[in-house]
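$ run holo --ligand "zinc ion" --emit tokens
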Amino acid sequence: MTGAHELEVTTQPGGLLFTCVVDGCGRRMAIDREGRYSVIDRGDATASHRGGVGGVELDLPQVRMT
Ligand SMILES: [Zn+2]
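-- output --
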């Protein structure tokens, strides 16, 4: 079954994590600070996944060594 799934964007120390909000899908993708893109979990490969980057104000966290 195809469909459009929304991706929720969260900031991580190493970059951005995109997680599908649709129950039962589980797609997760990450973009690191160099812009490298990787799929962590494929989830529903037939669905069209859209991230909210365009409308999200990105404010990456500061990383401190403690
Ligand atoms: Zn999905």
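-- notes --
The CA atoms of residues 5 and 22 lie 6 Å apart.
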